[in-house]
Specification:
Chain lengths: ~260, ~450
């Protein structure tokens, strides 16, 4: 394990929004091939962490550093991070009327490919690739023609996130509450998609409130985030313990 | 004691009258009597009312004093002799095969026109009026005259030419008809006064393009008036595209009147002009009409773009959907006024209006005024207007997938316009418009 490449190293991260401090000294190291789960009560900073890693402009980093693949993450724009292989599956995917899924995803994929020194895909090559991956996620045929997320059901929106992830093949996928709003069937399909991206040279950071998702995506490490810090780390069994005992025993300092 | 100040309109309308004396009166004998009398009446009416001032509610946000102050030279047939060879260079939709009628400064240019379908009449009014003036009179009577509007009255008085399209019943043209309007100004400020008349017979289909463009960058003033009559069961798609230069003034009225079960789509794409105003008046005068009115206005620098839309639901069970989206940057101003009027017996009316505006700078301004006047029960009418900036969450979403910030912005602006274009049925035209909008975006927003 130790000789595997470090993909992400978060050191003493302090960050917040509109002057409000949310992350207060967070440390986390993720190596290639690993799946990390971050769990925690509402308001603990889970979504702030994903937003800061993806580079959402309104969030402010006040202290600490994040090294991604040996580079200072905070020197990169959101689009550079995406091209470098960071992917955030949004908790609330944004609706974009008038931009169809095919045009959007082909533009994104070709930006990423150009950056990685690969040739751009033409319309037919893209369509072939997209259709193959759409089957995995059981997406309807007219999906590519529809405006991005517009009028999508909750399940379709989450599938669309995972569909994009599979097409863009990120090195580090951050999955923010991907299980929220999914029924059991959709949860299985989405999880299969995520597991398919589990590879020795890639890593996943799964942010979730409930243990349910972790039955499908089995993490190597589970971390508990509370009050802006990771207060406990463990193996996959920690998730089960949290399910049983809740978060109170940790946050009250009685653990 | 209150003193009422009456603002007297001191306006110099003389040169219009002089032009009438010099250019129209000598032709009295070539006009049928009713038409010449109509022109006299229109001129009188125009002299009476003069150009609208800003105390006129319909012109509150559109100050046309620059039009008024300019001493326009009204175009004559002489101004369109010896046309430059590349006169068509800025005309949109030329790639689409069509029956093409070309007007330069409001005058028909047969050498540049191409009519391949000899059905009914597709040609210039000037040629037609010398022959069958009764048909023309009937159309004028049917479509109403609207002389209470200064620009329509002025157009009626001064107009000498324009397109006349008469489609007999039960005809489906294989190609669209394209009315090309080009403003050409060599040394002085030219004013063009085209008047176009289109009558579509029962159960006939017509796709109509109406384009307004400038040959070069000089200031011109186009005062256009287009009437469309759609008889029972006709299917009409009208796409007007105005791409004049940024020094020009384009003030136009499109007036349509539809009969029973007509399907009417009418689009107004306005990108050009220093001041451009398009008044769209549509009478739904038969049961079961389905109509769509769509518009995109895009303005930058100090352009002003104004759309005034009046849809009258006169008979029961008519549908009208209105979608107008505006994109304004720099110090540009937009005006949208959309009025839906439902007559007392127009039950089961289904009318929906939206006007969405995207402001891309702090100084851009939009005045949006939706109006519903409903005098019938059992109707479904909605309207909504929004003003906003680019959605920052959407920009971030696109960036988080690797799309550069400027491309993300352009993509969203483009999408804002393209949702309107999606309502256009004619695919070739839609694709041409997509290119026109995209080109406009890349030339105006290269650095956003």
């Amino acid at each position: 394990m130790n000789n595997r490449q470090t993909i992400l190293e978060i050191k003493n991260l302090h960050a917040g929004i509109e002057g409000k401090k949310i992350l207060k000294g967070l440390n986390l190291t993720i190596k290639a091939g690993e799946v990390h789960a971050i769990m925690g009560p509402n308001g603990s900073g889970k979504s702030t962490l994903s937003a800061v890693l993806a580079g959402k402009p309104e969030y402010e980093v006040t202290e600490g550093e994040v090294i991604y693949m040996g580079k200072n993450l905070f020197e990169m724009t959101p689009e550079e991070r995406a091209k470098e292989g960071i992917f955030l599956a949004f908790q609330y995917p944004v609706e974009i009327p008038g931009v169809n899924c095919a045009y959007f995803l082909k533009s994104a994929l070709n930006e990423v490919r150009k950056y990685r020194g690969m040739s751009e895909l033409d319309a037919i090559e893209f369509l072939n690739l997209a259709k193959e991956k759409m089957k995995l996620l059981e997406l309807p045929e007219d999906f590519l023609k529809r405006s991005v997320n517009e009028g999508f059901s909750g399940g379709e929106k989450k599938k669309n996130e995972i569909f994009q992830m599979i097409i863009l093949e990120p090195t580090l996928a951050i999955l923010d509450e991907t299980d929220s709003g999914l029924d059991i069937d959709a949860l299985r399909i989405v999880s299969d998609g995520i597991n398919q991206m589990r590879k020795p040279d890639k890593a996943q950071l799964v942010i979730t409130h409930y243990q349910r998702l972790l039955n499908y995506i089995v993490p190597d490490f589970v971390h508990v985030l509370a009050n802006g810090q990771i207060i406990k780390s463990g193996g996959k069994e920690l998730a089960l313990e949290l399910e049983e005992r809740g978060y109170d025993w940790l946050t009250n300092g009685k653990g | 004691m209150n003193k009422v100040l009456v603002q007297t309109k001191v306006k110099d309308l003389n040169h219009f009258n002089e032009h009438f004396k010099k250019a129209i009166e000598p032709l009295e004998s070539s006009y049928p009597e009713w038409l010449f009398n109509l022109k006299l009446r229109a001129l009188e009416q125009f002299n009476d009312i003069g150009f609208p001032a800003q105390d006129d509610e319909d012109w509150r946000f559109t100050n046309i004093s620059p039009v008024e102050k300019t001493h326009w030279k009204i175009a004559t047939k002489q101004s369109v002799q010896n046309l430059p060879e590349d006169i068509l260079k800025n005309v949109p939709f030329l790639n689409i095969k069509s029956n093409r009628l070309v007007f330069v400064n409001g005058f028909y240019i047969p050498e540049l026109s191409m009519i391949t379908e000899e059905l009914g009449f597709i040609g210039s009014i000037e040629n037609f009026v010398k022959g069958d003036s009764d048909t023309l009179k009937k159309i004028y009577d049917e479509s109403g005259l609207a002389l209470n509007d200064a620009f329509c009255a002025l157009n009626m008085a001064l107009s000498m030419d324009g397109a006349l399209i008469l489609i007999p019943p039960n005809i489906k043209l294989s190609k669209p008809v394209h009315i090309v309007n080009i403003s050409l100004s060599a040394d002085s400020s030219i004013m063009s006064v085209p008047q176009h008349i289109i009558s579509v017979g029962k159960q006939s289909n017509l796709i109509l393009f109406e384009t307004y463009s400038s040959y070069s960058s000089e200031a011109t003033f186009t005062n256009a008036f287009t009437r469309i009559i759609a008889n029972n069961g006709a299917v009409v798609e009208h796409i007007r595209c105005q791409t004049e230069n940024q020094n020009s003034y384009n003030i136009a009225t499109t007036q349509s009147c539809s009969g029973e079960s007509v399907q009417l789509s009418s689009f107004s794409i306005a990108l050009g002009g220093k001041i451009s105003r398009h008044t769209i008046k549509s009478r739904l005068n038969g049961e079961g009409i389905e109509s769509v009115f769509g518009g995109i206005y895009m303005a930058s620098d100090s352009q002003l773009n104004d759309h005034h839309l009046v849809v009258e639901h006169i008979k029961p069970r008519c549908v009208s959907y209105e979608y107008f989206n505006g994109i304004l940057s720099d110090k540009a101003r937009g005006v949208f006024n959309g009025r839906i009027y439902v007559y007392p017996n127009a039950i089961k009316t289904d009318a929906k209006q939206t006007n969405k505006n995207l402001l891309l700078s702090d100084d851009a301004v939009i005045n949006s005024k939706p109006q519903l006047e409903i005098y019938a029960d059992d109707v479904k009418c909605t309207h909504g207007a929004t003003v906003g900036r680019l959605d920052q969450n959407a920009i971030f979403y696109l960036r988080s997938r690797g799309i550069n910030i400027n491309d993300a912005r352009r993509m969203l602006i483009w999408a804002f316009a393209s949702v309107i274009l999606d309502h256009i049925n004619n695919q070739e035209c839609r694709e041409e418009l997509e290119k026109i909008v995209a080109d406009w975006l890349s030339s105006h927003f290269a650095n956003i």
